[in-house]
Design a protein that fits this description.
Layout lengths: L7 H27 L2 H8 L8 H12 L12 E2 L5 H30 L5 H39 L10 E2 H18 L2 H10 L5 H6 L1 H15 L5 H21 L3 H37 L1
Parallel strand pairs: 1-2
Helix pairs in contact: 1-4, 4-5, 4-6, 5-6, 7-10, 9-10
Length: 293
Amino acid sequence: MADVKMSFWDHLDELRKVLFRIVGVLLVLTVAAFFFKEPMFNVIFGPLNSDFILYKGFDKLLGLIGLKGVDTFDIKVMNIEMSAQFFTHLKVSFFVALIIGMPFFFYQLWTFIRPALYPKEKRAIRGTFGFAGILFYLGLACGYFLVLPLTVKFLGTYQVSPDIPNEISLTSYIGMFLGLILVMGIVFEMPILAALLSRVGLINKELLKRYRKHAIVILVILAAIITPSGDAFTMMIVAIPLYLLYEFSIMVCRSEKEQNKDGGEEEEDYEEMDEDDSDVDDHALIEAGEAGE
């Protein structure tokens, strides 16, 4: 099939179609998720009691080394606003729809930008899109099964005095839940960002290795920001995956030698493209002159 040149308005029309499909699917998934209220909120409220999988795992681990396990607890969430429960239900349904539909949304964006890419770029970007989705879901899982429970356990049971019980509002908990989960999903895109920056020549393996010590300090600070509990144990639990992501970013980055080699090949490709374009222009001028005669 021959390539067809599209005007700016044609591109805008294609983008409009893509956005309509994304919004339509998002609305359908949101409505569908809305009808699964009970199982959805059972998952969301899972970390609020000591039966959660992470706490049970800690119990077994601590029992093996002869230490006391996690204290039994059951954090209660209360509602103090008339419409908070309904709008929280809507917000969570939208969030779940966004997570479930993410592969489809990425695919739609890919279909829009694919025609403008060269074959080599298509292969690279196609793999990047797929891997970005996997890392995003891994980040969500890490946030739900690791970061969120540790934060909830610390903040939900912390008291300055036994006479002052914790009364956690529904909006407060849901806000922390969505915030932590999304942040972890975004943070896990670090290798993808590193690979793209390496692709355009802004960073390389040698640079990341050279500043590894500085990166560790930044990652620890980032772990402290992500975990509002602030205790050293939780910060370490979060900092370790971030450091592993940094090391993985080094692996997926190109070396300076590879960048120089690819840069030379791209210059040759562009020169060949320019020569082809000039030949086309010459032929067009000749044909126009013959037509005028």
